[in-house]
Amino acid sequence: ERRRAERNEQLRSRTEKERERQARLAEEKLRKEEEEAKKRAEDDAKKKKVLSNMPHFGGYLAKAEQRRGKRQTGREMKLRILAERKKPLNIEHMREDELRAKAKELHDWIQQLESEKFDLMEKLRRQKYEVGAEQGILEWWGGGGDTGVTGG
Predict the structure, then answer these.
(1) Where is the composition biased (Basic and acidic residues) (predicted)?
(2) 22-28: long-range contacts (C-beta < 8 A, 24 or more apart)?
(3) Are 39 and 32 in contact (CB under 8 A)?
(4) C-alpha pair distances (Å), 149 with each of 118, 142, 145
(5) Cα R_g (the chain), whole angstroms
(6) Rounded CA gap, 2 and 5, in Å?
(7) Could you report the per-residue pLDDT of 45-89, keeping only the tens digit for each?
(8) CA–CA distance, 102 with 108 (Å, rounded to integer)
(9) How do residues 95-146 score in pLDDT, each as one tens digit?
(10) What residues contact residue 102 under an 8 Å CB cut-off, 6+ apart?
(11) Alpha-carbon distance 32 to 50, whole Å?
(12) DSSP calls for 14-71
């Protein structure tokens, strides 16, 4: 009986110590996270201070914001164009001959788009070839890989 009581006491003390250890670990983890957040905030503040002291940094920020804005408007423009191109396909009330005409119309439209795509891809291929040929001529004419440093 005494042995059982001692054993229960040992288990109770172990669980108590384990709880204390877990609490310490949780507090330490929280403290480290707070320190890291504080350090990050300080680093960001330092970077902003250094960058704001640099001349023309305001112009850089404006340009960066403008680039972001252009990209966003580009996306919006693409979505707008796609919305204009995408027409609702209402075929519920159509008869068979109307459905055939609609299918032919869609087929012709797809053919036109594929043709435009092919033409543009060919144009791109030719332009790439021309650029490569011109670079080759420039390298040959310039002696190949001129670094811009002259003298001797």
Answers:
(1) 1-46
(2) none
(3) no
(4) 44, 13, 11
(5) 36
(6) 5
(7) 887 777 666 655 555 566 666 666 666 677 777 877 777 777 777
(8) 10
(9) 999 999 999 999 999 999 999 999 999 999 999 999 998 888 888 888 655 5
(10) 89, 91, 94
(11) 27
(12) HHHHHHHHHHHHHHHHHHHHHHHHHHHHHHHHHHHHHHHHSTTHHHHHHHHHHHHHHH
Dist CA 108 CA 89 (whole Å):
16
Which helix (H) or strand (E) segment holds residue 1: the answer is none
**Would you say 20 and 27 are in contact if contact means Cβ atoms under 8 Å apart?**
no
The answer to whether the CB of 90 falls within 8 A of the CB of 102 is no
User: Hey, what amino acid is at 146?
Assistant: D
DSSP line for 85-152: H------TT--HHHHHHHHHHHHHHHHHHHHHHHHHHHHHHHHHHHHHHHHHHHHHHTTSS--S----
